[in-house]
Every structure is written in structure tokens, then in C-alpha cells.
Amino acid sequence: MIPLCVPKGQESVALRCGATWSSAEGCHVVEALPLIMEPTSPLLGFLPYRFRPDRAPPYVRPWMVPQPLWGWNLRALLAKADWDTVRRWAYRRAGYRCRICGQRGSDYPVEADEGWAYDDARCVQTLKGVVALCPRCHEVRHWGRTMATGREGPALEWMVFINGWSTEDAQNCAQAALQEWSLRSARSWTCDISWVEQTFGLPILPDARERAAARQKNLVGLARQTYYGKP
Ligand SMILES: [Zn+2]
Question: How much distance in Å is there from the Cα of 134 to the middle of ligand 1?
């Protein structure tokens, strides 16, 4: 059974695609993928990434923000009400299910994950979108925080399960992400979140840079305490 990410208002479209409502799952589901699926089928848009025939693993992997940009997230750069607008938009368009695996968490069904792209030639981190993820997929993405909280084991297991990998595959992927993070963290980066303004017309706070820089300093201090026991 495959859980679907059906936004409110799209229920009838999902039903026409062969979906049924599952009370047990609390969402629309399909029993299995159709043998043939047209690229234009609306079902494709409802499928979590790991079930989409046009996608291949890895569906979830660590995606680490370089240390100079720690804290440069929408929570810090936007007014609280504006960040709420963006993240709730992401939740609604995923039908409050994880876009990667279709599951949801017990305390918080989904969390908002910022999709950053990295231009290593120009050292620019660019926001490409915000998606709803379940806590388990989200903790794989935020590998640094996951390491700091001692959650590597469950996160590796989740990577194995979602990507259909061996444990060694998952360990190699996490190791490669750390090496990439280390190389990127040695350089100076700028952050481009113009996607928010273009998509929602929402402004960045006037003191956003100062707030983000203060946050970055604070987070680096916390990491030093965690790993080296000194500020
Ligand atoms: Zn998930």
C-alpha cells in the first residue's frame, strides 16, 4: 500500500486516479503502482519520491549546510508570520505527508525542509523550494544535528530502508556528505533566498543578516562545546 500526498481540494483527482481513502493510514492510498503510468498522470504528483518510477535512489541523504551559513535559514531571515506562511504552504501541498516517504511523525506529522542548491564555483547557496518531510527523513537531511544528538544509528537505518541500500552504502554516503561539508565549510559563502520573494512576495527582515550572523556564531559555539567540550 502506497500513501499519497494529496493536497486539500485535489481529493477527487486522486480518486479518479484509482486512489482510495484509508482510515487506518489517514490519507489517500493506492494498493500498487499501475503497470503503465503516463508522464502526465496526476498520480505522479501525489506519489512520494521513493515510489515515483521517474526517480532513483538516493531518495534521502544527508544534505549539510556549510558551517559559515549555519543559522541562515528562513526561520531567522523572515518574520515569524511569513515563515509560518511558507512552511504551512509546504505542508498543505503535500497533504501533510512526507514528500520523500509518505509517512508522518507522531508528535509533528511533518516538518519544513529547505531545499538548498550549492554552486561550488561561486560559493552561493540558493534556495530552490521548501518541502514537507517526516521527522525521520528530516533527521537524515540534517546530519550534523543528528550526529550531535546521537541519532546516527536510527538515521542510517532509515537511509538503508528508504533507499533500498546496504548499511555500508548508507555509511559511505554519510561519510561523503561529511567530506563535502568539510570542504565547503573552509570557504566563504553567500545565501540567496530570492525564491521566497519570487514565490510569495515576502520580504526578508531588514536586520536578517545580523540575526543570521548572530545565530551562526551561537551555533558554532554550541557545536564546539558538543565536540570539544570548550566554547
Ligand atoms: Zn519521510
Answer: 4
Distance from the alpha carbon of residue 156 to the mean position of ligand 1, in angstroms: 13
- For residue 104, how far is its CA from the centre of ligand 1 (angstroms)? 7
Residues of the chain with pLDDT > 90, as a percent, come to 82
CA of 225 relative to ligand 1 center, distance in Å = 30
**CB 146 within 8 Å of CB 155:** yes
What is the CA(136)–ligand 1 centre distance, in A? Answer: 6
Closest CA to 139 of 60, 69, 218: 60
Distance 22 CA to ligand 1 centre (A): 18
Q: What's the rounded Cα separation, in Å, for the pair 34 and 208?
A: 47
Radius of gyration of the chain from Cα atoms?
A: 19
pLDDT tens by residue, 128-138: 999 999 999 99
| Residue 48 Cα to ligand 1 middle (Å) | 9
41: Cα separation from own chain's centroid: 24
Q: What ipTM was predicted for this assembly? A: 1.00
Tens-place pLDDT, residues 5-58? 999 999 999 999 999 999 999 999 999 988 888 888 999 999 999 999 999 999
Per DSSP bridges, beta strands 124-133 and 190-192 are parallel
